[in-house]
Amino acid sequence: MKSSRSVTKSKSPAVLFVPALDDWLTSASTIPSAVQRWLSLGTQEVFAHDAYIGQLLLGQPIGSAALNALVDGADCVHETIIEVALVSLQPDLNAVWASPSASVSDQETLDALDQLFQAFELSLSRAPSGRMYVSIPQTPDVVFSPLWQVQGVSLDELMPTGADAKPWVSLISESQILLHQLKSNGAQTGGDSIWPWGMGRMPEPTSLTPRLDSVVARQPDLINLSQWLGVEALTASHSVLPVSGELTEWLGEPGIGADEHLIQLNAVVKSLMRRLRWGRLKEVELATQTRRWVLSTAQVWKSLG
Questions:
Q1: At 225, is the secondary structure helix, strand, or coil?
Q2: Whether 262 contacts 36, CB under 8 Å
Q3: Which residues lie closer than 8 Å to 290 by C-beta, 6 or more apart?
Q4: Angstrom distance (rounded) from CA 204 to CA 201
């Protein structure tokens, strides 16, 4: 773990991180007034592809694979890092559906995957955490779908795209054949397909300075990177409102739909807007994994005329 280089950041924003908000906004029948007002007033920024953790914690668009590799102690500075996960597949008459796998691969499977990657002139490395990575000198022209998007989505919609995507699509297809054969022979494969994702250029660790003082979240990648940076990281059993210099992850409640979630979020947003109006907060970011809307005290007062 790195020693803390953060200082009190009284001028830092409060960050309300709502990972599912994009889905709720798409699925809900209506958007409550306070949420709609925030989206209208706030300055919107779209994050670089799969770089939201770097944007939120560091203010830099660094791919999640590079940051996870740093936390895992990988020594690949200035190389491009791609994380390799395993996903489960469920075919039906219409499509093949994918979801992240939580199972562990046995040594036979890991050895076979090593050989497969070598056939594609790639080297697969494994960290003590169990994560798998590929490091390459140059960044290919390819877009990978983040692992957090791989949940009950058709595999065809998620495959890599771009000028350099063809060998990666072939690698994924070959891995499915390999893992199917291994599973048929009794191996504990841990999944049905590899999934490359999170591509990013690994930075010099000493160049990373956290922009926040504390994080209250449940997401492991967010917690692990915060701790590595020396940022106070807590796991909350219930949602709390962020203060200046703090990121709070807001997950809502299990078992309710988009409309109900937005109604609950609406009350939270109202409270944050009141704090902005009273000057208790100077700036608040409402963030998802793809974008954020930044709202300041000045913007709130200007909207009041």
A1: helix
A2: no
A3: 22, 46, 47, 52
A4: 10
Cα 281 from Cα 135, distance rounded (Å): 42
Q: How far is the C-alpha of 47 from the C-alpha of 30, rounded, in Å?
A: 25
Q: How far apart are CA 283 and CA 11, in angstroms?
A: 8
Tell me which residue of 83, 87, 101, 84 sits closest to 193, measured CA to CA.
87
User: For each of the chain's 305 residues, which pLDDT tens digit applies?
Assistant: 443 333 444 578 999 999 999 999 999 999 999 999 999 999 999 999 899 999 999 999 999 999 999 999 988 888 999 999 999 998 887 888 889 998 899 999 999 999 999 999 999 999 999 999 999 999 999 999 999 988 878 888 899 999 999 999 999 999 999 999 999 999 999 999 999 999 999 989 988 999 999 999 999 999 999 999 999 998 876 667 899 999 999 988 888 999 999 999 999 999 999 999 999 999 999 999 999 999 999 999 888 75
Length of the chain: 305
CA-nearest of 296, 232, 249 to 7 is: 232
Whole-model pTM: value is: 0.90
Nearest by Cα to 48 from 159, 204, 199, 219? 199
